[in-house]
Design brief:
Chain lengths: 333, 290
């Protein structure tokens, strides 16, 4: 009977050498390694691969085969490495592909119309107390209306005591950020279920619209403070919520409309498509949070806050419409 | 030609390399990935706390206002929570510090290294995997309704349902997490009973074990240490009894011992076999060694 244990023993020395080399390579930068070691690495890797392929002929024990699998796996991961960031490629993705994709995304259109449409409608209804009595009360509830009034009546951005308590208010700001991001997340995470996602978007749009309309009536206590507070970050915040809802819906469409793929493959493809929408939404939430923390609650003159709001809106229009306008005719998705 | 290999039941995946070699990766399950995740979380938190303390100490001696410190920390928190994973997984070939400690690595499902886009996708979708988020109020009555407590529920369910134990982010990015910790040793096992070497001498020299028999005996030896003597003879009986007749050995020979003897014949080198024989002749019962 041919005993191949001797052959294996000879190979074993090479495996151990490969293992040592891998340990060295993982603790040091590849560039610093002498060229001799690198050629040695590839030689040893290839022979280990061959040994693995011949494992049956060599009649290796199962434990040895396991060892070889793991050795070849580690060597493979050392030799085939991930490529580093390529700035120009990312620039192209962020400022050409992403806005164009968002511009022609039907889910974005739908969520935008539902969210901003109901927001405007609800705002209008709540504003006109004479024509639509009791709308704001039924939409928001007495409790929340009073809470909003209270918090914004106290918040007088011009008073000295307010400026002094700003540091303590950082926690409050953090809460608002979490709260608003929470709304966005709610819309996003319900999105894949489609109907609940659309309901959540419609609900949040209506409630936010009613709050805006109610506070903007003019005779509501704290109303001016509210408007001053939301001017700067409102554009970022509301757009971010609509986009988050759209990203969720886009993923949901994956399992509903498969286009001939399996449900999972379709879901996977739609998830990839939703990434730019999610990323932009995340950036907008962050910009809104920064504005909300830095600018909105401070005693900076209102003119500056309003200017910032105009700037934010211009930025959004530029990104979504100017950069997003299709450069080549393509089908809406 | 390669003999057909049977896939292991689970926790393993096969990839084919550019060298046209097929090999196995051990997949990492939730119990390896959760500690790595918590380690990364702890590292990020420590870093953030470190910066916070430094900034607060620094601001006490300078004109830096408390709100500036707050804003810097907020910025840092945002960057850390979104770009930590993307940066490390791209820069260090699919590993974050937590994964390095746990000997894990993210790779594409086809075995190639991950690229920056995949790293971004799987890290951005981490939030979806951390759902369902519970509000702070569930911890204390007075807490705000901020939905910030992750339960990782979606991620766990997704890992349980997919063959490669992928969470949603992995599914979307086409990645999987593999374990590089290797436990199998290279040294063949030595039967603790030296009589196995003597028995091996009695096996006819013309006998050549088939591939599947060699595999079966290898697996038996690796697992027999966990079995009681009664169970060993029960398991080995099926294989050993026909062989005893074929080799012309006494029917009351221990079937466990016969399989040990076959193992030494198949997997041990001539020197090791000679060494074993010496041990038997010295008459020492021999302590079990690997």
């Amino acid at each position: 009977m041919p005993n191949l244990a001797e052959t294996v023993q000879r190979r074993r020395a090479q495996w151990l050498q490969l293992e040592q080399l891998l340990a060295q390579l993982n603790s040091r930068k590849l560039k610093r390694m002498p060229g001799k070691n690198l050629t040695e690495l590839s030689d040893l890797y290839r022979s280990a691969c061959a040994d693995l392929a011949m494992a049956d002929q060599y009649r290796l024990s199962p434990a040895t085969v396991d060892y070889l699998h793991s050795l070849v796996g580690r060597a493979h991961n050392t030799i085939y490495r991930s490529r580093h960031f390529q700035v120009h490629q990312w620039w192209d993705v962020a400022f050409r592909q992403a806005p164009q994709q968002i511009f022609r995304d039907r889910c974005v259109h739908l969520c935008g119309i539902v969210f901003f449409g109901l927001f405007s409608l609800s705002c209008f209804l709540a504003l006109n107390e004479q024509s639509f009595p009791g709308f704001a009360e039924r939409m928001l509830g007495k409790e929340q209306m009073e809470a909003m009034q209270d918090s914004f009546t106290e918040a007088d951005f011009r008073s000295d005591s307010y400026a002094r308590s700003l540091d303590q208010n950082m926690t409050m700001v953090a809460f608002y950020i979490q709260h608003n991001t929470g709304i966005g997340l709610q819309c996003f995470s319900m999105g894949p279920l489609i109907i609940p996602g659309l309901y959540m978007t419609a609900f949040n749009g209506s409630v936010l619209g009613a709050s805006f309309g109610y506070m903007a009536r003019g005779d509501t206590p704290g109303g001016n403070n509210f408007l001053e507070f939301v001017t700067a970050h409102g554009a970022f915040e509301l757009t971010a919520i609509a986009l988050a809802a759209a990203a969720g819906l886009r993923i949901g469409m994956g399992w509903l409309v498969t286009g001939g793929l399996t449900r999972l493959a379709s879901l996977q493809r739609r998830a990839v498509e939703a990434v730019p929408v999610m990323a932009v939404s995340g950036v907008l939430f962050f910009l809104a949070a920064l504005t909300e923390g830095l600018l909105s609650p401070t005693s900076v003159p209102y003119l500056f806050k309003a200017m910032w709001g105009v700037f934010a809106s211009t930025l959004l229009v530029y990104y979504f419409v100017v950069l997003g306008y299709p450069t080549e005719p393509s089908r809406a998705t | 030609m390669l003999a057909p290999t049977t896939d292991k039941l689970d926790c393993f995946t096969r990839v084919i390399t550019p060298e046209n070699i097929e090999f196995e990766y051990a997949l990492a399950g939730p119990f390896q990935r959760l500690p790595a995740f918590l380690l990364d979380l702890a590292l990020r938190t420590l870093f953030l706390v470190g910066v916070a303390v430094t900034l607060i100490v620094f601001s006490a001696f300078s004109v830096l206002g408390g709100s500036i410190v707050g804003i810097v920390l907020l910025l840092l928190f945002f960057l850390l929570s979104w770009f930590y994973g993307i940066f490390f997984e791209t820069r260090y070939n699919g590993r974050t510090p937590g994964k390095m400690v746990m000997k894990l690595r993210v790779i594409s499902v086809d075995g190639r290294p991950i690229n920056a886009t995949q790293a971004a996708l799987r890290n951005l979708l981490r939030l979806a995997d951390m759902c369902v988020l519970l509000p702070l109020r569930s911890l204390s009555e007075e807490g705000p309704m901020a939905y910030v407590i992750p339960t990782l529920f979606i991620g766990f369910v997704s890992m349980a349902l997919t063959r490669r134990m992928q969470r949603l982010g992995d599914l979307a990015a086409g990645t999987m997490v593999i374990s590089e910790a290797h436990t199998s040793s290279l040294r063949p096992m030595t039967p603790e009973d030296p009589r196995a070497f003597g028995l091996a001498e009695l096996i006819p020299a013309t006998f050549s074990a088939s591939h599947s028999l060699a595999q079966a005996i290898g697996h038996y030896m690796e697992n027999r240490q966990r079995l009681s003597p009664a169970r060993r003879s029960e398991v080995s009986k099926h294989l050993a009894e026909p062989l005893l007749g074929r080799f012309g050995l006494l029917p009351d020979t221990s079937s466990d011992l016969l399989l040990c003897a076959l193992y030494t014949r198949i997997f041990l080198s001539a020197e090791e076999q000679a060494l074993g024989l010496q041990r038997m002749r010295a008459g020492s019962p021999g302590t079990q060694s690997r």
